[in-house]
Design brief:
single chain, 1004 residues, mainly beta, Immunoglobulin-like, Maltoporin, Chain A, 2 domains, 22-stranded antiparallel barrel, 12 helices, 8% helix, 48% strand, receptor, signal, Beta-barrel_TonB_sf, TonB-dep_OMP_SusC/RagA_CS
Length: 1004
């Protein structure tokens, strides 16, 4: 009716007045009738939407900006000239069209036009005011990466990755801008497709049969790394504060692949390869050992390299098939993968099968409603070895192999495993044969997100996610001839976890001339539930007889008492953020999050985490705009606070137990009745650890991409740390968990410099270098010192290597200072008490558990169809306590064991007492060629069904230059004491591997 009325009016006016008719004749007939705005989407050349792009009419001067999906709506007549611009892209002028417009902007040489993921949204890099780095799949997909955290190695300044174990699927330590806590670890918050993950274990741990308890595996190893599209690391508080109480260690946002614009694609990725131990330790060979020993009975007539016995050339294969398609209204991607990796230690394996489905669809007019679904399912089967970092020197496979006398043989004359006939030292091949450890973990992670455009610029989003996992671990040690559970035992550990998430938030985008606003506010609720059970049997049947206990635990033996636990906690949050942009020159970002957690006391349930940041794009100012050498130049400054809620559940509440030690005599027969014992003192005032951080940075792009990068200075201070410290008078327990006034200060400088050295039609060469410095110090600790880093070794029970003390770095070392050897080869230690007796009073503090400089070098060369990429990583200024070397001390020569060659060649006296000293403190400096890849891409234009074939060879950990005598200088073994984290201890749990691969990517 309205359109008909307008048509009648227009015809009447044209007949009534020629002047009016002339005016009307210049109007587009369709525009007069429809009066509908011009609509469209702005994307990059790769099809990625560009949010925040400016769309301006040259005639009416009306302007709007694209939303987070790159879409816009503007009142304009058909044929009217529109100018579309966005920082980092080449400006484009187009004519308005009545049909839905799709405008593609070509990226300029600047890096600032890149769209990056941020918390609860996305921005162009030019609009970002916080310190963050985004990695794309092409930059991180190199070699064998079981979990996503391994992919960050050497790619991002300020991020350090240290192996806790080289076992396939094992956990790693991720440090973003230093160590921010004494009590808890430094693991950042990982968010997958909008779902924050719990850092709690999702696989069951193993029992201790006298060989150490095995750690649970990496909770991130369920993700197929081929499914990952981007990884964004939020480093400063401005970027991470939107995650509040969980952002103190930084945030890692992972987005998975979706269907891209264009024809449907079918992609098959595969590789096969082999791995071997990264290096062998230099222990005495058989002939050397015979010359070194004084007792001829220690020569058993054999010639065995025990490292060769337990290590192997391990096979790895990976297969990934994915299908992606898009339509006018949506897209989907489906993938399935299988990875089969043998560990470099005999009998250890890792097998993973995953399936993923990502789908998106738009509904109603102009996609007013969009619905996204992400779903991944993973099944992992692992076999472990008798090797735990909680074992002493007499209960760990790798140490047994290194200590084993090289003149012994694997088998005796009867073909059976040689019996060493020693307590606390066993044939390592025999240990492998009597031990069986199998773990199955099934995990499903999924979420559904709906976005509804209420009004122009106003959008409502709801995100519901679940993370469900179940894990069963069957551990068996069969009856054996050692003194480690000689009658045999079986234990089954079960673990289940369920996390549910509900996010709801509103975003509002508005442009008024040169002013651009984005307002966001929302609510989040997340619930974490965990439960575990354990049961077992002692005195089981001999290996090979009857039914294995994992299939029938009741077949033989004596059942042990079952145990179990269940716990849950909840996190309720309110958050908001404001982004303001004036003329693409002046940027302001402010956010606030309030978190309430059931983990904390009744008096301190909520914490509040604000942030504020400013940005100034100098390159758009008149005084720099005409300088051809500067394409982009932006200054940033930020301040904010984040929290750390990683504490044990119920830690604020009192804990009680029935115990005979608190009992009393109730009857005349002197029977003791258990009394109530207080295990933990309540503290309802316990609250979050709070991290305050400020950051100053600059982003730049110079000489048309010849030099680009960023520079950052940061100061990150942890306040109100949670510690278990001595309690006050009249307390029912000797210690209490409480916030103390101490501070942990991390500060440093970060840089990333990139350049395109050559760019021609046939040849290109790019290079980037990143690095970071770190200074760490503890202040105002209310106790004299805290200890951690338990040491394993003969006679070293209760000795700790780490000390936390005011004025020193976190996890500094506390030990005797070794000055060398006297003429008789006896140890000389510094006597700081000058009493002529060397004891614990002479221990000194040595700093350097945390390297003070880390760097990465990454390069990519392309010549026609060939590509060559390489990556170096390195660190300086750090030290490691080589606990492995301490176990292989000179005393081994008088106890039928092997020794490190260097101690024998140094002339150390075999009578030297084993003591923790700086003799075992070594620099962890190194530089490593971590990845090398050579590929060839064949494009078959004549074969329409086959788009391209890329064949490549690659190597990982190919070369390491270091003075460190252990397996790997990039290691951090978990040796926690009293809940305090350990740093810089190397106890050879499982060495890293060197890997060679042959792979192919086929696109149909």
């Amino acid at each position: 009716m309205n359109n008909q009325f307008l048509l009648i009016v227009a015809v009447w006016l044209s007949a009534a007045s020629p002047s009016v008719a002339n005016t009307v004749s210049h109007l587009n007939y369709d525009r007069v009738i429809r009066q509908e705005p011009i609509k469209g989407v702005v994307v990059g050349t790769d099809g990625t939407p560009i949010p925040g792009a400016s769309v301006k009419s040259l005639s009416s001067k009306k302007v709007t900006t694209t939303n987070d999906r790159g879409e816009f709506s503007l009142q304009a007549a058909e044929g009217e000239k529109l100018v579309i611009s966005s920082i980092g892209f080449t400006q484009q002028e187009v004519a308005a069209s009545g049909s839905f417009m799709r405008i593609t902007l070509a990226a300029s040489s600047s890096q600032l036009g890149e769209v990056v993921v941020v918390g609860y949204g996305s921005q162009t890099k030019a609009d970002v005011t916080g310190a963050l780095t985004q990695l794309k799949a092409d930059n991180i997909k190199q070699g064998v990466n079981v979990s996503v955290d391994n992919m960050l190695q050497g790619k991002v300044s300020g991020v350090r990755i240290a192996q806790s174990s080289g076992e396939p699927g094992a956990g790693v330590d991720v440090f973003i801008r230093g160590v921010g806590s004494i009590r808890s670890g430094s693991t950042p918050l990982f968010v997958v497709d909008g779902v924050p993950l719990s850092n709690d274990n999702v696989s069951a741990g193993g029992p201790n049969f006298g060989l150490g308890s095995s750690e649970p595996k990496n909770p991130l190893n369920f993700l197929n790394t081929s499914d990952i599209e981007t990884i964004t690391i939020l480093k400063d508080a401005s970027a991470a504060a939107i995650y509040g109480a969980r952002g103190s260690n930084g945030v890692v946002l992972i987005t998975t692949k979706r269907g891209s614009k264009g024809a449907p694609t079918l992609t098959y990725d595969t590789y096969i390869g082999t791995s071997s131990v990264i290096r062998k330790l230099d222990v005495l060979k058989a002939d050397e050992y015979r010359k070194a020993i004084k007792d001829p009975s220690y020569d058993h007539g054999g010639n065995t390299d025990w490292q060769d016995v337990i290590y192997r050339n391990a096979f790895v294969q990976n297969h990934n098939l994915s299908f992606a398609k898009t339509s006018n209204t949506g897209s989907f991607l489906a993938s399935v993968s299988h990875m089969d990796q043998d560990g470099i230690v005999e009998t250890s394996t890792f097998k993973r099968t995953t399936a993923r489905l990502n789908a998106e669809e738009g509904f109603f007019d102009d996609k007013r409603l969009t619905v996204k679904m992400n779903l991944t399912a993973s099944n992992i089967d692992e076999t472990g070895i008798p090797n735990g970092n909680t074992a002493g020197s007499d209960g760990q496979l790798i140490i047994h192999a290194l200590m084993a006398n090289p003149t012994r043989s694997v088998f005796d004359s009867t073909g059976k495993y040689t019996n060493f006939n020693m307590n606390a030292h066993y044939n390592p091949a025999y240990l492998l044969s009597i031990y069986k450890d199998k773990t199955n973990t099934f995990r499903v992670l999924g979420n559904v997100e709906a976005a509804f455009r209420i009004l122009k610029g106003l959008n409502y989003r709801i995100n519901y996610g679940i993370d469900k996992s179940t894990s069963e671990r069957n551990s068996t040690i069969y009856p054996n001839i050692t003194d480690r559970t000689p009658l045999g035992a079986y234990v089954q550990n079960n673990l289940s976890s369920l996390t549910t998430l509900l996010d709801q938030y509103l975003t509002y985008n508005r442009s008024i001339n040169k002013h651009q606003f984005e307002l966001m506010g929302g609510f989040s609720y997340q619930k974490f539930q965990f439960a575990g059970t354990a049961f077992g049997t002692q005195g089981i049947s001999k290996q090979g007889e009857g039914v294995d206990p994992e299939y029938n635990p009741g077949y033989s033996g004596t059942p042990t008492a079952p145990s179990g636990y269940a716990q849950e906690n909840e996190l309720q949050s309110f958050f908001g953020r404001v982004n303001y942009n004036y003329d693409n020159k002046y940027l302001v970002t402010a956010s606030l999050r309030a978190d309430g957690s059931t983990r904390f006391g009744e008096d301190k349930k909520y914490g509040y985490f604000p942030s504020f940041a400013l940005g100034w794009t100098l390159s758009r100012e008149g005084f720099l705009k005409d300088i051809s050498a500067i394409q982009d130049l932006k200054l940033r400054a930020s301040w904010g606070q984040t929290g750390n809620q990683e504490v044990t559940n119920k830690i604020t509440q009192a804990s009680y137990a029935l115990s005979p030690s608190a009992g009393y005599y109730l009857y005349d027969d002197h029977t003791v009745v258990n009394g109530v014992l207080v295990n933990r003192t309540a503290n309802p005032g316990l609250k979050w650890e709070m991290v305050e951080q400020y950051n100053i940075g600059v982003d730049f792009d110079l000489w048309k991409g010849r030099l680009y990068g960023s520079l950052e200075y940061y100061n990150k201070t942890t306040k109100d740390p949670i510690l278990n410290i001595p309690s006050g008078p009249l307390s029912p327990t000797t210690t209490i968990w409480k916030n103390v006034d101490a501070q942990i200060v991390n500060k440093g400088f970060e840089f990333m410099l990139g350049t395109t050295l050559i760019r021609t039609k046939d040849f290109s060469w790019s290079l980037d270098v990143n690095g970071s410095t770190l200074s760490n110090k503890i202040k105002d600790l209310p106790v004299s010192e805290l200890y951690s880093g338990s040491i394993s070794g003969p006679g070293l029970s209760g000795v700790n290597a780490n000390i936390y003390k005011n004025g020193y770095e976190a996890g500094s070392f506390f030990m005797l200072k070794h000055l060398g050897y006297d003429k008789d080869g006896k140890d000389i230690f510094e006597d700081i008490t000058h009493d002529g007796v060397i004891n614990s009073s002479d221990r000194q503090i040595f700093q350097g558990a945390i390297p003070n400089f880390n760097f990465g070098i990454n390069s990519q060369l392309r010549y026609k169809a060939f590509d060559l990429g390489f990556s170096f990583i390195g660190q300086t200024g750090g030290y490691l306590v080589n606990n492995t070397a301490l176990d292989l001390n000179i005393n081994s020569l008088v106890s039928d064991r092997n020794v490190l060659t260097k101690y024998y060649e140094d002339g150390a006296n075999t009578a030297n007492q084993v003591q923790l000293s700086s003799l075992y403190l070594e620099k962890s400096d190194f530089i490593r060629l971590s990845n090398l890849r050579l590929g060839y891409t064949l494009t078959l234009a004549k074969e329409a069904w086959l788009r391209s074939l890329n064949i490549y060879v690659s190597a990982q950990n190919l070369m390491t230059i270091t003075g460190y005598s252990g397996y790997d200088p990039l290691v951090n073994t978990t040796k926690i004491v009293g809940g305090n984290q350990s740093l810089g201890v190397d106890y050879a749990t499982y060495p890293a591997a060197k890997t060679f691969l042959l792979g192919a990517t086929v696109k149909f």
